[in-house]
Design brief:
- By secondary structure, this protein is of the alpha/beta class.
- It is built from nine helices and 16 strands.
- It is globular.
- Bound molecules: zinc ion (ZN).
- The site of zinc ion (ZN) has 5 residues, from loops.
Length: about 325
């Protein structure tokens, strides 16, 4: 039961992958039985995807949706992370923002969508965002110690849980097993930093370093279109802020920075659950995070010394006794 509660970066089938649009935050402690897993799976893909046409490039593992012209959400709806990678195609080149769990073959999906050169950037280096990096030659990273250590590959019990029956709503792709699943090593081919702009032809993507969730977290911003790719700094679900690599002081600053962009934003594209979120939620995140860190929100204990702070549309998961920062 415990492992259900602390299984992966978006809280597994428990709270982590639920958005208020589909499931209430009070569902967060209820997904512990096979029947509950079945019920969770029966609601995937989430209703938010009904707004889009599923693209024929979707394979057995991914579902692909063109959420804006030239912007593809590559969603993994059959695994409890419900992670979303984004392919952004310009007239000259393309950026792949995250490569998923490494369970399905994301390269074959990308190859169906574009023949332009593809650069991979990761929202951060947790395993559910870097799994397909090894399939690409060009991987740009802010290259913190954390990123570099993750680029060497990951093989752990935590990772194996991600391909166990309780994490899955369908069979694994042929050749992937609980025994052999791992995050394969990859090479970082170049570094990026805050303020760098990637011109892909007809679209400029600005890199924003937003440390907090991890020290290598980035967001991508298309200022002209008003689009922000938020990674795990924000998504509609319980946001995981209890890892040792999470820095709440840094996260608070980064959230304030993202929220300051709201007046110029038309849409936020998060890395889990739903492919398009209302930018106003970033303002809600900033306000509620500030209240939490000032000790002004009552936490709900969940498991393993973690607590959850629940709000409309998202929640925050933190270590108990850690969330309250000193005033000033
Ligand atoms: Zn993460």
């Amino acid at each position: 039961m415990k492992k259900f509660l602390l299984a992966g970066p978006c809280f597994g089938v428990l709270a982590g992958c639920m958005s208020a649009a589909d499931l209430s935050a009070s569902d967060s402690a209820s997904y512990a039985s096979a029947a509950d897993l079945q019920s969770f799976c029966s609601r995937l893909p989430r209703s938010a995807y009904a707004d889009y046409q599923k693209h024929e490039a979707s394979g057995d593992w991914f579902e692909v949706y063109e959420i804006e012209p030239g912007i593809w959400a590559i969603y993994e709806p059959f695994q409890w992370q419900e992670v979303i990678s984004y392919l952004i195609v310009g007239s000259e080149s393309a950026v792949l923002f995250d490569t998923g769990n490494g369970i399905g073959n994301i390269r074959s999906i990308v190859d169906q969508l574009t023949d332009r050169p593809v650069r991979v950037l990761n929202s951060h280096s947790h395993f559910d965002h870097i799994g397909g990096n090894y399939q690409f030659d060009e991987v740009l990273s802010v290259a913190t110690e954390f990123s570099v250590s993750r680029s060497r590959g990951i093989k752990s019990d935590e990772l194996l849980l991600e391909v166990s029956p309780e994490a899955l709503c369908k069979n694994l792709p042929v050749g992937v097993t609980e025994e052999n699943h791992e995050t394969r090593p990859f090479s970082i081919s170049g570094t990026i930093a805050d303020g760098d702009v990637l011109d892909i032809g007809g679209r400029n993507l600005e890199v924003l370093q937003v440390p907090g969730h991890t020290d290598d977290a980035i967001a991508l911003l298309d200022r002209d279109a008003g689009f922000l790719w938020s990674g795990d700094s924000f998504y509609e679900g319980p946001i995981w802020l209890f890892f040792p690599e999470t820095d709440l002081v840094a996260y608070q600053k980064s959230v304030a920075r993202l929220a300051s962009l709201v007046p110029g934003l038309k849409a936020v594209f998060p890395a889990h659950n739903t492919p398009r979120a209302d930018p106003a939620l970033l303002t809600q995140l900033r306000e509620n995070l500030d209240r939490v860190l000032a000790g002004n929100v009552v936490p709900v204990p969940v498991s393993d010394g973690n607590v959850e702070f629940r709000f409309e549309g998202f929640s925050l998961l933190m270590r108990e006794n850690y969330y309250r920062l000193d005033a000033d």
